[in-house]
Records
---
Amino acid sequence: MAVIRETRVTPDAEGDVVERNTVTERPVVIERPVVKKKGGFGWGMILGVLIVAGAIVAYAYNQGSFQTAGARADQATQTAQVEASQTADNARQAVNNATEDNSSAPAQPQTESDTPPPQQ
């Protein structure tokens, strides 16, 4: 710890030193109180991860499982395939009807490959 020494001089009328007083002072040390740190980055990160995980779980619960979504996608794909097949069959039938009207050739009998697949 540092010690402060101060010398006080008393001069006379002519400026000569008459008296010397040396004063020794020890400075007062003010200790800061120990401040306990509150939650920092780690606690905030954990809390943020928990909030995001909870939001994902809530969203998945409201929207259904991934298996349900996959089953719906498969069903939509199958429906689209059936509709595309029916559209192709209708177009083929329209072409056949148009050629039958323009020519005197007899109509061709419908085969199994021309029939639309049964709907499920």
Note: DSSP finds two helices and two strands in the chain.
---
Amino acid sequence: MSVAMFRRRFSEHVDAGQLSSYRKAMGPRIERIEALCDTVSEIADDLRRKIREPDEIDEHLAKAESELDEIALSVAEQLAPEPLRALHAEFDANLERALRGVVTIERGCGLTRIPHATIYDDEPQAYWKHGHLNVVHAQMRMREIAEVLFAWKAGAPAEASVTARIHQIGA
């Protein structure tokens, strides 16, 4: 008894118009995400160094969170060309990580409002540190992914790993 096995061949063909419109839609979002992450990480760093008070930055954090949340929804709804979908999903996951970092920083600020709490307590400092690291690390990874998303050419691997970077530079 013989069984015929058919493998579906993955097509590297991508419509140039679809790729162009995807990049056109993602470009401004990525720029705005970068600016928001810079602002939030600066705020968190100022809180950790006791340069600013939590009450001073409440509005800035709330605004950054709502903008990032809006962008995250539009990025999640954006359909990427087939070969870039895994990278797009990873970009979206890192955007969510940056959002969690903002929420963590806000929680640290909320802890300073508890009676008898100060900004010198260890717990808010830990929240600010973890939130800051989440935002910075997510931002770094999103930069790497965005670089690949915008430089990718049909037929090339859509990969943003260390191994792919080593192969790119020919080391």
Note: The helical segments are 16-48, 54-77, 85-111, 122-151, 162-169.
